[in-house]
Amino acid sequence: MKDTEQQVLNEDMIQEDPQEQKKLFGKFASMSWTYWFASCFCSYLTIFLQSIGWKTSDVGIINSLNSAVGVVSTPFWGTLSDKIRSIKKIVIILIITAALTYALIPYVDYKFAGISLLFIIIPLSNFFRVPLMSLIDNWTVRASNKHGLRFGLIRSFGSFSFGVIGLVLGYVVTRMNGESGNAGTRMTFWGYAFFSIALLLVVLWIKDDVQGSETKKQKFSEMQFGRLFKNYYYMTYLVYAMIIQIPLACVYSFQPYLMADIGVNTGTIGYITGFKAFIEIPMLLLMDKVRNKCPLYVLLFGAGALYMLEAFFYSVSGSFTHLLLIGILQGLGGGLHIAAGSNYVATLAPDNLKATAQTLNGSMVSLAGIAGNLIGGFVIEAVGIRSFYRGCGFVILAGLALFILSFPFGEKVLHLKRPAIVKHGTGR
Fold first, then answer.
1. Which of 131, 163, 170, 194 is nearest to 33 (CA)?
2. How many C-beta neighbours within 10 Å does residue 70 have?
3. How far is CA 147 from the centre of its chain?
4. Around Cβ 414, how many Cβ atoms within 10 Å?
5. Cβ neighbours around 227 below 10 Å, total
6. pLDDT, tens digit (0-9, with 9 covering 90-100), for 310-368
C-alpha cells in the first residue's frame, strides 16, 4: 500500500460489464447467505456441552483447545491457498471435512480412560471449520476490490440469513428441547452439515480469479513472509485483535451460563444471535460509502468502544429483554468490525500474501481465545459471572486505548504515515 495521506483508488479494480458485475454480485451474495445460514447452527455447541453436564471450567478447556487448533489451522490453510494460488480449492476441502466432522459431535459423547472423546472430535472439526470464515471473507473482499462490488452489501446478506435462521432456531430448539431433553440442540449439528451442501454448490459456481493472472504455484521461499511482520500498522492491528479477543471469546462462549444465572432459557439464544445479526445490516450497508470518507482504523475504534460497552452492560443485565437490548451494541460493533477489519487487513497486505495476512489475523484471534477461555472458566467459578463480564469490559478498554495510541506513536516517533483512505467499488 502506498504511504500517503491522500485518497487513492484501488489499483486492482477493473472495469466491469454491468450485467456481468450484477451476476458476480449475486454469486458472492449467495455464498455469504449460505455460509452464515449454515454457521448459525454452530451457535449451540456450548449449550450442548452445558446440557450434558459440563462445568464452565470444562467448557473453557475445550474452547482453549479449539483456539489452539485455530492458531495452527487458520494460517496453515491461508498460506496453502496463497501457495497454490487458489482460495476456491481450499474452501471446497474445508466445507466437506467441516460438515462431516461437526455432524459427528453429538454421537461421540463417550469417555476413554476418563477423558471424553469430545476433547478430540470438537477440535478436529474446528481445524476445518474455523478457517472458512477468514478465507470466505478474504475471497469476497478481494473480489469486491477487483470487480467494484459492494462488500458491505454482500456481507449483509449473510447477516440477514444468520438473523432469520437464528430466530427460527430460537423457537424450534426451545420447543424440541422442552419435549425431549436436548433433542433440539442435537439437531443443530446435522443441520450444519446439511446446509453446508448448499454452500458447497454455491462455491463450485464461483470463478476463482482473485489471486492474480499467474497460474504457477509459489514456492515458500518466494512468498517473503517478512513483509507482513515488518508492516507496523498490520502488526499493531494484530496485537489489538489479540488483546480484545481474550475477553470477547469469553463474552460469547460463556453467554449461556450468564443466561442461566439470569434465569433465561438457554434455548432462546437463537433469538439473541438472530437479533444481533439483523442489527449488523445497517452498518454493513453504510460501510461502502463511509470507508471512502473515513479511515478504516477509525471505524475499528468505534467497534472497540461498542464491544467495551456491551461487556459492561452484560455484567448488570437481569432479563431476556436486557440481553436483546445489549445485543444492539454487539450488532453495531460487529457490523463495523466485520467490514472494516477485513478490508483494513486486505489494504495493508501485499498482493501475494492477502490470504495469509487474513488468516494470520484469524490465527492471532484464536491464540488470544486460548488464554481467554482457559482462564475464563475458572475465573467465573471463582468470582462469579457478573464480575467476570465487568473485567472483560476493562480489558477491552485497555486494548482499545493502546490501539488508538499506536497511531500517533507510529506517526511521530517512527515517522510512518497513517494508512490512507482506499476508495472502493461503487461507493467512490
1. 163
2. 26
3. 24
4. 9
5. 14
6. 999 998 888 889 988 998 888 888 888 877 887 888 788 776 667 677 777 777 777 77
Q: What's at 255, amino acid-wise?
A: Q
Find all residues with CB under 8 Å of 258, minimum gap 6, and list them. Answer: 314, 317, 385, 389
Confidence at residue 5, expressed as pLDDT on a 0 to 100 scale: 36
- Residue 8's H or E segment, with its range, is strand 8-9
* Residue whose C-alpha cell is 450488532: 331
Rg value, the chain, Cα: 21
Residue 342 backbone phi and psi in degrees, to 5: -60, -40
Tally of residues, the chain? 428
Q: Tell me which residue has cell 474446528.
A: 126
Q: How far apart are CA 184 and CA 394, in angstroms?
A: 36
Q: CB-based contacts of 224: which residues, under 8 Å, 6+ apart?
A: 350, 353
Give the strand pairing for 8-9 and 422-423. parallel
Angle among Cα 175, 177, 180 to the nearest 5 degrees reads 110
How is residue 3 annotated by DSSP? -
Q: With 90 as the cut, is the pLDDT of residue 400 above it?
A: yes
For 105-129, letters b (16+ CB in 10 Å) and e give bbeeeeeeeeebebeebbbbbbbbb
Cell of 405: 495510541
Tell me which residue of 45, 259, 294 sits closest to 173, measured CA to CA: 45
